[in-house]
Amino acid sequence: MSPVTHFLTGWVLAATSHIERRDRALVTLSAVIPDVDGLGAIPEFLTRNSSHQLLWFSKYHHSLHTLLFALAVSLLAAIVARQRWKTALLCFVAFHLHLLEDVLGSRGPDGDQWPISYFAPFSPDQWVWHGQWFLNSWPNFVITIALLIATIYLAWQSGLSPLEMISSQANAEFVNVIRRRLTRKKASA
């Protein structure tokens, strides 16, 4: 699934978990961090026409989708979080939601599946689902739209939005806009 879907999955989980701002950011980032190896696409793109092409994305994307990396991310979260164990557990869950989303809907445009080597480097076994949806399939769009609706609802209801990770003021402005728009529509109905 797309990074946006992973981000929103982490955010919705974090925003409904009654944890502090910093901890919500950690949970949200834990749902995205398995794809940090996707940054290999940049050097691969830049060297695509060279005699020494770097295939960092082609070879290594999904290489961090492992139990070992999930544990490392959760441990790091436990070290820096305010609500240490709750946040670490939520980070572990967010990480695994990312993996589930990838198993469900990350088939490449050429039909190639992206398996997950969950127990690497200890085992060569891979997770794959033969019914895996294409990245641009309608179920992925439906999931992303549902997460967007949930994000807007949470902003309206609780005053929390992903913008709080950037700025409290930006979050407040966004929430105010959402509340004004939804209240107007509700009043006119």
Please name the defining characteristics of this protein.
mainly alpha, globular, 189 residues
Please characterize this protein's 3D structure.
The chain has a domain at 3-133. It is mainly alpha-helical and 189 residues long. Helix content is 59%, strand content 0%.
Based on Cα principal axes, name the global outline: globular
* Biggest β-sheet description: none
Helix content: 55-70%
Q: End-to-end span in angstroms?
A: 36 Å
Average pLDDT across residues? 92
Low-confidence runs (pLDDT<50, min 5 residues)? none
Order of helices and strands: HHHHHHHH
DSSP strand content: under 5%
Count of helices?
8
In total, the number of strands is 0
Outline of the structure:
The protein is mainly α and 189 residues long. The protein contains eight helices and no strands.
Write the layout of secondary structure elements.
Blueprint: H1 3-15, H2 21-30, H3 41-46, H4 56-60, H5 67-80, H6 84-105, H7 138-158, H8 168-188
Helix pairs in contact: 1-2, 1-6, 1-7, 2-5, 2-6, 5-6, 7-8
